[in-house]
Specification:
The chain has 182 residues and is α+β, with helices and mostly antiparallel strands. It is built from 3 helices and 10 strands, in the order βββββββαβββαα. The protein is 21% helix and 46% strand. The two termini are 31 Å apart.
Length: 182
């Protein structure tokens, strides 16, 4: 793996509640200078909530970047100094009104490494029990239960295009395959 590029300068462009936007100048391997814009993010947790072997709980919510509604696994941004698992446990209650008695880490990934430092941590949540939660004030979402076959069909047909949901589904399949010893 190659070394990191030396940073020449960093400039804060914007700081919000969830992200910071910075302009960064770097020294390229050939000695030239390159400029990049970078979104700094605390990271997030994604939950694959499995009600039983065949049923998933997803959220249907408006996403401003896509100017439309998306069907996706619940997820949320980590609070400062919050662990990814603590974030997942908080978000599952807030978004779908369940708590899980069993958690398994499925993996982690950068959803947009060209522009963002966000690292998403993926968890399988099982043995779900209803628990009343309080949705964030700026979220309006509905829960939807899909069978394994329905979820796969929607991914295959391009009806679900949310990266964390697609990745989460396939990480779950690999996890199940490993658990069976295949």
């Amino acid at each position: 793996m190659k070394k990191t590029l030396p940073i020449i300068s960093q400039k804060l462009i914007y700081e919000g509640l969830v992200v910071r936007l910075e302009k960064i100048k770097l020294r390229a391997p050939d000695g030239s200078r390159i400029t990049r814009e970078l979104i700094r993010h605390h990271g997030s947790a994604v939950i694959v909530p499995l009600l039983d072997r065949d049923h998933f709980v997803l959220v249907y919510q408006y996403r401003v970047a896509c100017n439309g509604y998306m069907l996706e696994f619940p997820a949320g941004t980590k609070e400062r100094n919050e662990s990814p698992l603590a974030c997942a446990k908080r978000e599952i209650v807030e978004e779908i009104n369940y708590r899980a008695n069993k958690w398994v880490k499925l993996g982690k990934f950068y959803p947009a490494p060209g522009v963002s430092t966000e690292l998403m941590h993926m968890y399988l949540a099982t043995n779900l029990k209803p628990q009343a939660g309080q949705m964030d004030d700026d979220e309006w979402l509905e829960t939807r239960v899909l069978t394994r076959r329905e979820l796969r069909h929607k991914i295959d047909k391009g009806e679900i295009v949310d990266a964390k949901t697609v990745i989460g589904f396939f990480l779950l399949l690999e996890h199940e395959k490993s658990a069976r010893g295949c």
